[in-house]
Amino acid sequence: MTTRVAGCELCELSAPTVVDNDKFAVILVDDANYPGFARVIWKDHVCEVSDLPEADRLLLNDAVYKLELAVRDVMQPLKVNVASLGNVVPHLHWHVIPRYADDAHFPAPVWAQAQRTTPDAVLAERRQRVPQLAEAIARRFASR
Amino acid sequence: MTTRVAGCELCELSAPTVVDNDKFAVILVDDANYPGFARVIWKDHVCEVSDLPEADRLLLNDAVYKLELAVRDVMQPLKVNVASLGNVVPHLHWHVIPRYADDAHFPAPVWAQAQRTTPDAVLAERRQRVPQLAEAIARRFASR
């Protein structure tokens, strides 16, 4: 049984999921500047990675790893950014973000001030790969 | 044998380390706004978590976990932020950052625009715990 907190937007997740099991979900983030941005969202309302029992912690770590692999395979980024912040929504989730030299913030983190506008054609090309990313993620998680 | 890249500031790490073995180092970051900010720096010059063989990946994950525990124990943050970015220095390292409602950027990530000035007395009190944090980290890593 998972712990749910009323009013927590990740306990009441409404976004479409690419992977969904009793422990975690994987979603694609709809961010105009970052096609391929994805998240692993733990189902239980826990705050920190270190709140998890070991088996769950390793399961979550494996999920973030698999997601990173799928993002690298399909999005071919220059760098991957992986982060668990949760200051706004203190419900455990991991961001996996493909980064490119021409993205809006590079080399700063995506949470810094934007440094440029990525050409529409470049973003459109990346956006076209998102369905393929969804398939690659589903395959990665089906093979466990 | 570790791989070194000339000119990489993390291959040529000069900061004092709290933990130092053949696989990784743990350092305390000298950030005026974030006493207790710490990093795990992988020794080999690899770019992404997913570039590591499984045993190393799990070892690094365990190191980040131990560091998070020590930071929580001593710094008693409201939230911990954990991130592997590496856009500026593409040499695998993890940030572990204790966050508080009154810190310079909360609830935004520390890489966003600052939102306030934390009172000096508050920062001084947190800074005083840093030696204790170093001891707690050393203990955590000695017990493996």
What structural keywords apply?
HIT-like_sf (chains A, B); HIT_Hint (chains A, B); homodimer; HIT-like (chains A, B); alpha+beta; 144 residues; HIT family, subunit A
Number of strands of chain A: 5
Q: Strand-residue fraction of chain A? A: 15-25%
CATH topology of chain A: HIT family, subunit A
Using the alpha-carbon principal axes, give the shape of chain A. Answer: globular
Domain HIT (chains A, B): 6-106
Motif (Histidine triad motif) (chains A, B): 91-95
Protein name (chains A, B): HIT family protein
InterPro entries (chains A, B): HIT-like, HIT-like_sf, HIT_Hint
Task: Compose a concise summary of this entry.
2 copies of one chain form a homodimer. The first copy, chain A, is α+β, with helices and mostly antiparallel strands and 144 residues long.
Task: Provide an overview of this structure.
The structure is a homodimer of 144-residue chains. By secondary structure, chain A is of the alpha+beta class. Chain A has one domain: HIT-like (HIT family, subunit A). Helices cover 31% and strands 17% of the residues of chain A. The first copy, chain A, has helices spanning 54-75, 120-128, 130-142, and strands at residues 19-20, 24-28, 38-42, 79-84, 93-99. Chain A has a 5-stranded antiparallel β-sheet. In chain A, a hairpin with a 3-residue loop joins strand 1 and strand 2 (24-28). In chain A, helix 1 packs antiparallel against helix 3. In chain A, 40% of the residues are buried. Chains A and B meet through helix 1 and strand 4 of A and helix 1 and strand 4 of B. Strand 4 (79-84) of chain A pairs antiparallel with strand 4 (79-84) of chain B, so a sheet runs across the interface.
